[in-house]
Amino acid sequence: MAATLFDMAQRACIRNVMDMYDVGDLRYETIRPVLKRVTNPAQLRQIEEASPHIAEDDAELWQAFIRRDILKAESKLQTTRPKNPSSWWKVYRKLKREDEADTQAAEDRLKATLNRHKVDKGAKQTHIVHAVIPSGEKRPAWSSSAPRDKPFGNQALKNARTAAQTITVLKRQTAQRQAGRSVAQSVPMHQLSQLRGKVNEAPAHMIRNYAQKPGPTRPPPAVPQGQQYRPVFARQPQTYADRVLNSAINQTKQEQEAKERRLLALTSGSSANKPRPTAATSTSRPPTASAPQRRPSPVPAQRPAPVPTSSTSTLARKRPAYDPFLPAKKRRT
């Protein structure tokens, strides 16, 4: 029965080992199965401070932490041993700091290597130039009268009939290939790095282009303050909205003129149908000798003034319609 209660208490301690910071006066052999379940070295150190008697026997627990958290732990354990058996936590702390320092140094070395690799890669990177760089030499135009080049390549070798001609063709091909090689191909590899970034002479086409450019022009003479001219602004091009607005204005004006012509036709027809005065009416008001007779004012041919009548008084307009696009009249001062 006692063994059963001990086992139950031990299992309960294992379940709640995360909350254990003191074992009291229990011997290390009794509490050993519970302490082996501790996963945090800081918690084990707190238990040692609360119960110092177990620090002399828990070396295996610190060695397990060293093997778990530190690289190359076996070789370090063979060379590092504390003089006091209760100071294994100091060994763990020392090896942990050394391992962190080695890890940080390795990371720094890796970063430095990557940075050097990036610099070297950027120096050797190919840059694409979106422009045509002229070679500076013009090729002669082809013409039927120009002398044709000799055959080159396999055709020239086929045309050779003797051994002397074959040797001559091979020499000519070798000389042409040697003359067509670039500077980078003709210079040894160990000298290319020394010539990088050095320009001894500008290309011929750049010198010609610079010579063809016009020289600097003189600035215009300064105009006195009182004789400065007002800037002349160029007329802006007519947009689609302006064209639509002008067409609408013209259409409105045409409709207005058509209405006025119809109104003028109506008013002229009503005045022609009006009855003329008779003799009786003319004798009722004899004209005086002193008052001269007034001549009727001539009616303009283009736009006669409409006579207001009862039928057309509502249609006649005394003045033309207001046009917002006409210039404003200047007021007299």
Describe, in plain words, how this protein is organized in 3D.
It holds the Pfam family Elongin_A. Residues 275-292 have a biased composition (Low complexity). It comes from Aureobasidium namibiae CBS 147.97. By secondary structure, the chain is mainly alpha-helical. Among the domains are: 1-47, no CATH class; 58-121. It has 13 helices and no strands. It has helices at residues 2-15, 28-35, 41-50, 59-69, 73-79, 88-123, 154-159, 163-180, 183-186, 189-195, 204-212, 240-272, 279-284. Helix 4 (59-69) runs parallel beside helix 6 (88-123). The longest helix is centred in the N-terminal third of the chain and has 36 residues, at 88-123.
